[in-house]
Amino acid sequence: MISERLQRLKYLAGDFVTSSVAWALFNCVRWELHAVQGTYTSLVGFLTSRNVLILQLVIPLFMMCVYWLSGYYNEVFRKSRLQEVFTTFWSAVVNSLVIFFGALINDMSGTRGASYELIIILWSLLFFIVYAVRCAITNDTSYRIKHRKWSIPTLVVGRGATAVSFVNKINNQQHSMGYDIRGFVSIPGENDVKELSLPGYTLDEVAEVCRRDHIQELIVVPTRKGSDRLLHTINHLFALDKPIKLTPMSGNVLMRKMRMSDFYGVPLVDISSSNMSDSAKNVKRAADVIISSILLLVMAPFFAIIALLIKLDSHGTVFYLQERVGYHNVPFNIYKFRTMCSDAEASGEPQLTSDNDPRVTRIGRFLRKYRIDELPQFWNVLVGDMSIVGPRPERQYYIDQIMKRAPSYALLRQVRPGITGMGMVKYGYAQNVDEMVERLDYDLMYLENMSLINDVKIMVYTIHTVLTGKGM
Asked: Could you report the per-residue pLDDT of 347-396, keeping only the tens digit for each?
């Protein structure tokens, strides 16, 4: 069994050490080229000066942030060699330019040509030294996986002839793909092979098997090509929070714009995450944290005023907590300003808001009109329950009804739900399950076309909606 945490630590430690070495060597080059200002009498005196020592710690840490944003640490076992070169190349470019113009430009002496020369030297040191260690770790990992020294405990979801054939195929390959198949899981409604060389489990037993056998990945191998039954199965698997891969033989809605992995050997499609690049995912998450932190800090006095108005307007709490289902089917409590009377769901059965709903308070109607009631959800964004942009999270009560009519809703579990999204800005609030199903088309369209640019467009559109009071 491979430890993902230990493998990631190898890359992190390697990058920090090599970045530190590259930066120290660059300082030596600066000294030799007389490209520093100050009255330093020797190289040792320069390298041990206060400012240089501070930067010797700060600069590598900054580089590590760039490496993280590049998405290099997202996948640590099956890295693409070509992608590794490109990622390291562009990380070195970004680090060189930002460091040079942000930290060194005022400390330089010499001509403009000498400055360009130093930028190239800095890039060269960063790229070649960092890539050398990365390549060594990746090559060692690949060797251990191919020669069956390392493997990932895996379950195959499917017990039909196709699943058995798939397992035989990957086990008989000359070079291992790194999967240690521990058993088969039945897909409801499919014909199972009676005699298996490995244990067989039901879908309800998967969670316990994953805990007991430390399963790290799931591979779905359906026999039939009908997507509804398969989507219900995958919706169940999302709650396990494991990478889920699908064989490409089942051409259906699941294959649209999904990320292909394992090009060599048996190609598989990653259906547990969106089709955004690893770097875009990390930039999106970093933007969520930064924006939500700033807004929560800036809006704190505004929140206090709203809280006072809510208390003066009606009895009850200021904030309203409601359980929703989010990323990978994990439930969480969503935070909103209370806009209804405290006994809005006294019957115990969930009820959606409608136009002119008598349960909405006076201040609540204003808050909903300008979507001010949604602002506390930036706390959900900060802690990772939600994103600023994404499909709207629903309650399990309504998800069960939506899944009966539109099983493709399961695909939304690939991403964090959002405060706003394409479904919200193009369709708006849903007042019944029929409208939720209609709004799903917009959310699926967003999922297929996820990008940072589209997120910015949706946020701009949302601001326009809020300022014009079209929240209800």
From this structure: 666 767 766 778 888 999 899 888 899 999 999 999 999 999 999 999 99
* Cα–Cα distance, 437 to 401 (Å, whole number): 10
Instruction: Classify domain 152-270 at the CATH topology level.
Output: Rossmann fold (3.40.50)
Continuous H helices in 70-151: 81-99, 112-146
Residue 468 tokens read as 């014009």
Length of the chain as a residue count = 472
Res 256: pLDDT: 54
User: The whole model's pTM is what?
Assistant: 0.87
- CA distances (Å), 470 to each of 429, 435, 438, 467, in order? 11, 18, 19, 8
Average pLDDT over residues 286-313: 96
| Residues near 172 by beta carbon (within 8 Å), at least 6 away in sequence | none
Note whether 389 and 420 are within 8 A (CB): yes
Please say if the pLDDT value at position 282 is more than 90.
yes
Closest CA to 409 of 231, 210, 188: 231
Ordered by start, the domain boundaries in the chain are 4-146, 152-270, 278-467
DSSP string, 251-313: -SGGGTTPEEE--SSS-EEE-SS-SS-HHHHHHHHHHHHHHHHHHHHHTHHHHHHHHHHHHHH
Cα–Cα separations (whole angstroms), residue 340 to 318, 354, 378, 419: 10, 12, 20, 19
Please name the amino acid found at residue 61: L
Q: Find the range with the poorest average confidence among 36-50, 301-315, 323-337, 389-403.
A: 36-50
Strands 244-246 and 268-270: antiparallel
Whether 279 has a pLDDT exceeding 80, the answer reads yes
Quote the tokens at residue 194. 């009676």
Q: How far apart are CA 386 and CA 382, in angstroms?
A: 8
> What are the tokens at 439?
């709004």
**Could you give the CA distance from residue 254 to residue 270 in angstroms, rounded to a whole number?**
10
User: Nearest-CA neighbor of 154 among 77, 79, 227, 230?
Assistant: 77
Question: In whole angstroms, what is the distance from residue 136 CA to residue 376 CA?
Answer: 46
- What pairs with residue 152 in β-bridges? 179
Residue 427's nearest CA partner among 439, 444, 443, 412 is 439
pLDDT at 472: 47
Distances (CA, A) of 281 to 71, 98, 277, 293: 8, 22, 6, 18
